[in-house]
Automatic annotation (TrEMBL):
This is Precorrin 3B synthase CobZ. InterPro entries: CobZ, FAD-dep_OxRdtase_2_FAD-bd, FAD-oxidoreductase_2, FAD/NAD-bd_sf, Succ_DH/fumarate_Rdtase_cat_sf. Its cofactor is FAD. NCBIfam families: CobZ_N-term, PRK08274.1. Transmembrane segments: none annotated. It holds the Pfam family FAD_binding_2. Keywords: FAD, Flavoprotein, Oxidoreductase. Gene3D superfamilies: FAD/NAD(P)-binding domain (3.50.50.60), Succinate dehydrogenase/fumarate reductase flavoprotein, catalytic domain (3.90.700.10). One of its GO terms (molecular function) is oxidoreductase activity. It comes from the Bacteria. Residues 4-432 form the FAD-dependent oxidoreductase 2 FAD-binding domain.
Amino acid sequence: MEHDVVVIGGGNAALCAALMAREAGAGVLLLEAAPKEWRGGNSGHTRNLRCMHDAPQDVLVDAYPQEEYWQDLLKVTGGSTDERLARLTIRASATCRDWMRAHGVHFQPPLSGALHVARTNAFFMGGGKALLNAYYRSAQRLGVTIRYGAPVDRLEIGQQGRFVAAHVNGERITAKACVLAAGGFESNREWLRQAWGQNERGEWPTDNFLIRGTRYNQGVLLRHMLDEHGADRIGDPTQAHMVAIDARAPLYDGGICTRIDCVSLGVVLNRDAQRFHDEGEDFWPKRYAIWGRLVARQPGQMGYAIIDAKAVGHFMPAVFPGVVANTLRELAQKLGLDAAAFMRTLDDYNAACRAGNFDHTVLDDCHTEGISPAKTHWARPITDAPFFGYALKPGVTFTYLGLRTDETAAVRFANRPSENLFVAGEMMAGNVLGKGYTAGVGMSIGTAFGRIAGANAARASLKKGFGHAGA
């Protein structure tokens, strides 16, 4: 049996594509590599969607216009982004929530004290797992055929990048069009090792990485498309959404609760008890995803977040309790750090702090002078017992190497778009995210391009022209 559209993947982007294709009248088969109980890839760990809006709008307060959203994205990526596709994502984020609600997604009322995200981000009631369950229910109700435990290991691609068939567990599945939404390669240790190599200390940094999301994102199809079919690529294989997470987190699927959010309220030291970056350079939702990469560059890929009693209550509590001590020297000993080096670093930091009006909701005037790296905001001496320490490791969410695409979400070969092969989600996020991250933008990309890819795959299967604004 030939299907109209086959969607490869089972997370947010794949589901958006499957739903849009089915709504357009196409028969849809969705192939999810994971078993049913682990379906959904990394989307189950998400919480929110970053949304443009020009005025207060249902669950969003104030305004978050296109230009501010673009400037936020430009800042975190350092310009490593395709502005056309970024602005397409931003515009699509303004209009997708009604469609999401129609498929059973519910949003929380605006959150008070939520570190600036009540204005910029719409939170899913029940988190990403509830969103996935809603989409799967809607897909089944609409007649999308879903197969679990169905990893696609290769594709047949004809001339000019035309999709012919997918191979699943030895079975050949044909379709008139295909959407690739099978995630990145963050769970593939061998590929991570190849990408990062050894550092100047002879270490293999990726051996110490933890994977915040699914173990099923092995990058099999991504590598197949790049190496076997010569699809146009985008992104640096070492760039990823990487967060500093609790070193006690599990190897896979630790999710949001393993994140340590107190970094901007204290200092972060490496294994040598030295600071290595400005902990207060910007609000946490804009800068939290740089810290995984920063820790990855340190000896042993370890960091240590240090705070005192003044910081308690100003950040989302960690799921694991921190190491507690009544003196800084005792804390250093409990963390296994050289006490003399630790005390020199903390004494220098405390002496460099300049009094100001501490306010963690604004870029305040509490800063350091005379030390490097500086702490430019929220710098207060760490002097009030008890003291807390959290050991950190790099936590990888998803990788940015992917397939180059355009406004139609078509996969490109030698800079020519395929007529019937499309891509969405983490497999193409590097078009928008060359590096860096800001909270909720991954779901914005997946939702926008999932909807575009699904709509255009349906058009291709039904012999209609492409649309640029399927979202």
